[in-house]
Amino acid sequence: MDVPRPMMPRGIRAVILAIAALMVLPALAGIAGAQDDGETTQQPLVFRAGTLSDMDTPNVLAPGGCGCYEMMFLAYDQLFNFDPETLTAGDLGLVTSYERLDDGATWEFQIREGVRWSDGEPLTSSDLAFTFEFIIEKNISVYHSYLGMSGPRDDPPTFETPDEDTLIWRSPRPTFAPIVPPWIPIIPEHIWSEFETRDEARDFENIPTVGTGPFQLAEWEPGQFYRLERNEHYWGDQPVIDEVFIRIFENEEAMAQALIAGEIDFADSLNPTLFNALGGESNITAHRAAAGFLMNLAFNFGGQGPQSDPHPALQDLTVRRAIAHAIDKQALVDRVLLGTGTVAQSVILPMSDFHWEPTEDEIIHYDPEEAGRLLDEAGYVDSDGDGIRQMPDGGQPLRFDMFALTSNPSSVRALRLIGGWLEQVGMEVNVMPVGDGRAGDLWGSGEFDGFMWGWGPEPDPDFMLSVFTTEMCGVWSDGCYSDPAYDRMYEQQKNAIDPEERHQIVTEMQRHLYEDVAEVILYYPNTLQAYRSDRWDGFVPTPAPDGFLIFGWGPYSYVNLAPVGDGDGGPGLGATGTTGLSTGVWIAVAVVILLVAGALVVIMRRRRTAEDRA
Amino acid sequence: VGARWYLARKVFGAFLTLFFVLTVNFFLFRIMPGDPVSMLVRQQRLTPAQQEEQIRTFGLDRPLHEQYMVYLANTLQGDLGRSGLTSRPVTQMISERIWPTVLLVGAGTLISIVVGLLAGIYGAWRRGSALDKGSLFTSLFFYSLPEGWFGMMLILVFVGVFGIFPAGGYRSGAPLTGIAYVTDVLNHLVLPLATLTLGYIGSYAIVMRSSLLEVLGEEYITTARAKGLAENRTLWRHAVPNAVLPSVTLVLYSFGYVVGGSIVIEYVFSYPGLGGMTASAVNSQDFPLLQGMFLLFSASVILFNLVADLLYGYFDPRVRDT
């Protein structure tokens, strides 16, 4: 019965098996693909954004700050949320109305009714009082200024809650701090009251967050992503999207490619080159968010400490004015930002109601000849013929050590251009590109003549103006600028409860800084954002009309976003939202590798025995 | 007796080195120019109150020898302090990132070792053949490419043009489990792993090829052939075992450096590993974090050096008997 069949050599058999597996491969992939499709139908609606910086910690009251603003805006409310139109105190936070009770030291707030925490517990006025008291008691100093305190040792305000819907805020002196608005996330007493000490509070992981915002943080993988889910108990209209997924990129180019490939719906903080390239894609809308930042050339006025070594020429207004005349700001915007920014004059951003612009007569125009004339007139001449002017006494040359941050490559380029312009009028700049940490050291010790850095000011001008006061030397001041007249004006605006009066003083302060060339405000760079307009619609720019789409000043876009048409907003990339091979393909690949390796081993063994026999 | 003594000597030496590294690691960050307080404390712009807070947190208000004892005690208990930037425990920050790095660089090292050694063996054995020339050229070509640039090219082609693989990251973040999770991680791994592996193969291939060529010229190989031994047996039983020693060293040293990650590749692919964290810690002068990572890297190198020494003693009895 048994007909002996000729044995097929084992090596050949293995190869045939491998080929057979290769043929089965597409079928396997098909099965796996079908499974993925089956899952798509029940998927949550996810909005995916890419950005370059992760949060430091989700603990919103971490003593050193959390670096988690976007998450904070999504998961928490403030006393007042920023009005998306104007970025002033709107009626969109936990307060519905307020009243000034006396000279401005006492304020009474009506708390929104029916607000629940994301765990379902009701919010009352005592949660608000608890939050502010927590900051004072646990000494969370990053938030002190929002409570109208000038430092941790300043007299703190006190809080009363006559009933569940009313909060009374008593300050030791008249203040507008309560309505600025205080940029403090309101936390639930029933969660945070268990922390007795500052250290206990510092170690709180805070996932999932319990807040009153439209979303709550569900997951954080440091360096990778954070994910927020819709808050079912949110007091406002429920958002359309179920989840917000923020993915961290180290590499801007990779982020742009991910946007093109559809892995993400939104890319934040692009560089001008990528931004212009993405603008050419038909399904992508590139958005130049109105300036939320300023870049400045700061001078050292000295006083930081024993190592501080400011150049004497920079103490002279004439030299500072000459430097301002020698800088072509428009060229910086055109050549460094490729047009994605605007020329700047004032320390208060154009988006603010308090912004001041010099008149045509007041502007210190780009005029190298005028710069040279000013310096000649004041006696800064080049007496030794090396092309660099000296101090009027013929001594120290006008040679300045200035640093710029390598983490902001455009500022290094800008400072090099500035160095070139100053050289043309007889001054020399030693441009020092430094890392963030080194920059902090130089700035702190005062071992520099100037630097190029920037600020991302808050909507209210108080903080930005405070930076130039004498008291801020060694705290926030750029180069320890000090002027008693300016300091007086700062105090006046801080005590001015009447908005008109305050506006007037703030205007005067900006003019003062400009005319005294406390520093040269160079330009306001746009924040460059891009999104898949074939998928999403309904972004709310904050502030109106052309501010940040997201990563700005509130949750408004996320609440309003909707998929375009009847689409699901998804790219059909399956549950993961990313590209990649399906499980079936991976299994097939593994099978093929094993078979090929097996075949090789068999062949080699056969050959070896064959050789041994021979 | 010789073997046991050899083992004891090597293990003791490793512990001594580790203790030395531990001590240097502590003093290094305090000897470097600049005020140690400001170096450990100042990053970004801190208010005086925040600085005081940091000084207290890091125990910098205490005398140096006391700080050293505390540092030793804490380190032995696995407490590496807190990051100067995020205030999160260094041990936790490292443990979040170590597995992606071990997966990426470990798998890359392993694959390139296997492929590289085989290519080197085959190249030496069939020296001058088309395959030898081809594999030598290819491996050297990839070896000499700047890996950052090569990675970017892979992204442009496989993400931008074909859209087959993700642009970076370790996993997608979707709530996946089991095989779907593995698939997701694999998909994210392909491009960085390819960049890394292709770049590494060359170094192993070259070392293996040259040491095998040397051995193949030895007289005992000629003797083996003259005895009429099969070619395969001559290669695998007689030539390769003697040629593999330099590669063993190289391989184990490479494994020692696995936890160090790959700064460039992790940056290009936004891969959340220790290499990328080292780079950002350097940039932000986060000294507690750097200190912790240096310790880990040194310990890993010391450990694999020890293993290399012990294996050497096993492979080459002359070493342990001297």
Overview of the molecule:
The complex is a heterodimer of chains A (about 625) and B (about 325). Chain A is α+β, with helices and mostly antiparallel strands and about 625 residues long. Helix content of chain A is about 35%, strand content about 15%. Chain A has 17 helices and 19 strands. In chain A, the strands form four sheets. A seven-stranded mixed beta sheet of chain A has the order 6-7-8-1-9-17-10, sandwiched between helices. In chain A, helix 11 links the parallel strand 13 and strand 14. Chain A is globular, with a radius of gyration of 31 Å. The two termini of chain A are about 35 Å apart. Chain B has about 325 residues and is an all-alpha fold. Chain B has 15 helices and no strands. In chain B, helix 6 crosses helix 8. The longest helix of chain B is centred in the middle third of the chain and has 39 residues. The relative contact order of chain B is 0.14. The interface between A and B is large, with 63 and 65 residues.
Order of helices and strands of chain B: HHHHHHHHHHHHHHH
Return Rg of chain A in Å. Answer: 31 Å
**Percentage of residues in strands of chain B:** under 5%
Oligomer: heterodimer
Instruction: Indicate the mean pLDDT of chain B.
Output: 84
Question: Which chains share the greatest interface?
Answer: A-B, 63 and 65 residues
Low-confidence stretches of chain A: 1-17, 23-41
On the 0-100 scale, what is the average pLDDT of chain A?
A: 88
- Helicity range of the residues of chain B? over 70%
Largest sheet of chain A: 7 strands, mixed
So what's the overall shape of chain A? globular
- Summarize the amount of helix of chain A as a percent range: 25-40%
Number of helices in the DSSP assignment of chain B: 15
Low-confidence stretches of chain B: 41-45
Strand order of the largest sheet of chain A: 6-7-8-1-9-17-10
